[in-house]
Design a protein that fits this description.
Elements (H helix, E strand, L loop, with lengths): L17 H4 L12 E9 L4 H4 L19 E11 L9 E7 L3 E4 L10 E3 L16 H13 L7 E4 L5 H12 L3 E6 L2 H9 L4 E4 L5 H8 L2 E6 L3 H9 L1 E9 L19 H4 L3 E4 L6 H17 L7 E5 L4 H9 L6 E5 L4
The chain binds NADPH dihydro-nicotinamide-adenine-dinucleotide phosphate (NDP).
NADPH dihydro-nicotinamide-adenine-dinucleotide phosphate binds next to helix 3, helix 4 and helix 10.
GO molecular function: oxidoreductase activity, acting on the CH-CH group of donors, NAD or NADP as acceptor
Keywords: Oxidoreductase
Protein name: NAD(P)-binding protein
Length: 337
């Protein structure tokens, strides 16, 4: 992929050895701050948009050159001056891509931290995957924007990924026929395991032909945007629901896709909703916590993890995510829990 202007090419990672910089026993902690050991970190498509110059506007803050990048992760608290996060507690939220870091007591990222109880003793990595933001993205978006129709048709893109693999299972649980696409045959096998009725590799099959044969679509879960969104518009059923979750085909592109079927939004009465997961947190979090961890613990929901060990391999793992080489949730394991 082309390097973001001014940024090192993903794949070459500079590791800032914070264990050398932070005196773990004695580093002074300000009021309410905590010192954590990072266990695992999430790699996500939105990180591509953080690789930009600070003066370029965007919906998430840019990474700052020569400072550690940050993202979602799970850590264990080593030292604490914060009454909410005691020593030994595990937390989920935003943190540096570092072995250890101090999270200051006020503002962000402290505000993003959530105490993990983990009563079911599940692996910590799940809390950046099916029990983290990707899981919530699938569940919140599905609950909020889809009126499932038994035997109706749902089309889900990047169906073997962290979000898409859970959306397939939600659609099947609601009795829908599922068409799902991904970019390798191994991913197609995984989507079949998840219950997809028509799983296909979009590199070796024509999405256009498949949608014509198996549509029209009552639901389109969009993770890719561009040409596939246009094809979904062309093959939408009357009053279809389109969930605009992501547009990963456009994240490296500066050219807008020349849509041909936009007017179908009107003529087919399509309900089209874009969303950011955090905006649905208040409404759906309680239901998520009551239902999803237990289903995962009981093996009722399937997931895959694409694990990379060691911070030094972050760059190449991020490049793999952005070129489709991951199957399932992309995670960097930094330290033992
Ligand atoms: P995935 O685990 O699905 O990984 C990304 C996948 O996208 C790759 O495996 C690949 O799958 C596909 N891909 C990568 N690059 C391209 C490309 N250039 N063109 C086409 N496909 C590509 O990631 P997530 O599950 O974390 O995210 C899925 C989508 O959900 C993303 O669009 C993301 O931005 C969005 N998202 C939105 C959120 C929100 O709040 N709205 C929150 C979280 C995620 P394949 O082999 O199928 O091509």
């Amino acid at each position: 992929i082309p390097p973001a202007d001014g940024y090192p090419i993903p794949g070459k990672t500079t590791v800032y050895d914070t264990s050398a910089e932070i005196d773990l026993e004695n580093a002074p902690l300000s009021k309410d701050s905590i010192l954590v050991k990072v266990i695992c970190l999430s790699l996500d498509p939105y990180m591509r948009s953080r690789m930009r110059k600070p003066d370029v506007p965007g919906y998430v803050p840019p990474f700052i050159l020569h400072e550690p990048i940050s993202g979602h992760g799970v850590s264990v608290v080593l030292r604490s001056r914060n009454p909410h996060f005691k020593e030994g507690a595990h937390v989920r939220g935003f943190m540096d891509f570092a072995e250890y870091c101090i999270i200051e007591g006020d503002g962000f990222p402290m505000q993003s931290l959530i105490l993990l109880k983990n009563d079911l003793q599940l692996p910590w990595s799940l809390y950046v995957g099916i029990l983290g933001v990707p899981g919530r993205t699938a569940v919140f978006g599905w609950r909020e924007y889809v009126k499932p129709k038994a035997r109706g048709v749902a089309f889900i893109t990047t169906g073997a990924g962290a979000v898409g693999s859970l959306v397939i299972q939600l659609a099947k649980r609601d009795g829908m026929k599922v068409i799902a696409s991904a970019g390798t045959d191994d991913k197609v096998n995984f989507m079949n395991e998840l219950g997809a009725d028509v799983a296909f590799n979009y590199h070796t099959n024509s999405t256009k032909d498949i949608l014509r044969e198996h549509g029209p679509l009552d639901v389109y879960w969009d993770n890719v945007g561009g040409e596939v969104l246009d094809l979904a518009l062309e093959n939408a059923a009357f009053s279809a629901s389109f969930v605009e979750c992501g547009m990963i085909t456009t994240y490296n592109s500066t050219n807008a896709y020349p849509f041909k079927n936009m007017f179908n939004i009107i003529s087919k009465n399509i309900q089209i909703n874009g969303f950011l997961t955090r905006t649905l947190l208040e409404k759906h979090e309680e239901e998520f916590l009551q239902i999803i961890p237990k289903m995962v613990g009981d093996g009722e929901l399937k997931y895959r993890e694409d694990i990379t060990s060691g911070l030094a391999n972050t760059g190449s793992a991020l490049l793999d995510l952005l070129t489709g080489k991951n199957t399932g949730k992309s995670i960097v394991i930094v330290n033992e829990g």
